[in-house]
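Anyone opening a protein record will find just a pair of labelled lines. A complete record is shown below as an example.
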Amino acid sequence: MSRAQTKVLQYVKEARASELALVRVLQSQIAMTPRGSLRSGLEKHLQETRDHAERLRVRAGELEHGFNPIALAVGVAEAVTGQALALAKTPLDLVRGTGGEEKVLKNAKDSSATEALEIATYTALERMAELAGDTKTAELAASIREDEEQMLGFLLEEIPTLTEAVFGADVEGDPSFDPAKTGAADAVRGAAEAAGDTADSAADAAKGAAADAKSSAKGAAASAKSSAKAAAGEAKDTARRTAAGAQAAASTAADDAGRTAGKVADDAKDAAGSAKAAVSDAADGARTTAKDAADDAQEAAATPPVDPDAEKPWAGYDELSVEEVRAVLLTADAETTAQVDAYERANRGRKGILGVTEPQVQSA
């Protein structure tokens, strides 16, 4: 591989590292952005970003065919480290600002800067590929750059509206940010609705099983009655023809009919008992599933009062939901994790957060 091709491969891997880091950033921002045009745009760009990373992975594999990667190791390591340092702070940006409106605005401003960096990255990659005579990579870079330019334009159009929301909340005292409409809250509601659907399906299945069992029992009883009637008729005819033989035949037929009817009745009783047990088990399972989902949703949305004098892990901590704090803990250092663990135990006691901090604190 020539030096020019090696340089192109380096730039392709740098671009892919940037896209992979941006996936985590977009997920965190979507979690605390209310429903609306901004969140729809972020969700659309999240899919585009994943697609960009995959296309770059494929192209890097094509360029590396038959190539010894040792010559590129240092450059790629520096690229990945640089992207990680540049984007690792983004989850912490979620806790900035005086209220939800300003947090969303600052996230949009940060995203605009990130998009500008992406555009510059693909502009450089396109030109490097052109100079190296790599038309395929140049076309790939130009295609992805167009997506980044569209996203930057979208964010710049949203910023004035987001700024108006901040003015209304912080200056005019008319807040519009609703935590119940954020991506994290919608995810919790979705889980609760899924649990409810599962419970309904289980109940419907139990009802169907009971109806089938009842129908089977009714059919078996009718069949037993018909069999007994036929046996009695045959015994009567036989009795008319031969007195002695008729008496024996009638006795035998009556015994057989009694045993048949008794067995069918026992089977019907067993089937009804099984159906009743199935209905009870399904109902218990449905109630348990629905209760667990409701408890989880209540814990995620609860904001119990805390000691106002208690030292918080960071400014604005109490305004965050469980999912938002967990997003921050993904990249938090050991000291921050320990502060969150101590604060939650003393004030909030949210299990969804302690489940993340406790193993890390114990292993420290």
Remarks:
- Residues 185-301 form one domain.
- Confidence is low (pLDDT under 50) at residues 68-76, 78-94.
